Protein: BPL/LPL catalytic domain-containing protein
Amino acid sequence: DEAFRVAEEKGLNGTIILAETQTSGRGRGSKTWLSPYGGLWFSIILKPKISPLIISIITLLSGLAVAETIKESLNLDAKMKWPNDVLIDNLKVAGILCESEIFKNKIKKLVIGIGVNLNIDKEDIEGLDIEATSCKIESGNEVNREKFLAHFLQKFENYYSKMIFPSELESIVNKIRKIIIPIGYYVEIKVEDKKLSGYAFDIDDSGSLLVRIDNQIKAFTSSNIEYIRIIK
Structure:
């Protein structure tokens, strides 16, 4: 909310807003996001000249940049869970939320909110209603927040600047495919009070999840599902 206010008042493309903690951190839908001291909580304000139809790709490439930063700086194997989580050993370590304002089919502004459980201790995570971890818990060491953020921003800027080129976008999507869950699994998806099940086999170039249901291929976006879970 604060990032959107700044975007409205100053509107500087590329502005980054950092928080020591958040009292009203939000995830997808109505979910809350615990944001205590020790985490990395920040938002990026952008004015991308892309179709609103591929906003989901920005969420995914943000997750890719987080996962690769964890891998390269901490030597920990991180995966993405479609549509907006980053996991270590199936435990949530980061989340991404993209919110946009669209006018006449053009993106007026886009705010990417990113939360990384960086130096969060076990006692701060215990009791949550989700299975989570932190980079500190998994690596056994305190993580330098400034270096981690700089590493992430370098990777994010590289992907973001290239995504407007079709061949580069295809390369980015291929990288995402290699680390994203639940590709290769049977899943249950809740959409508009209906539960559907099928085989998740790919994502398309817009970031939609492709699921084979009763011999039909259906594309799902993060905006039209309530939840997704692996069933086998």
About this structure: The first strand starts at residue 16 and ends at 19. Residues 189 and 195 are 6 Å apart (CA to CA). The longest helix spans residues 55-74. The helical segments are 2-9, 55-74, 122-125, 135-139, 145-162, 166-179.
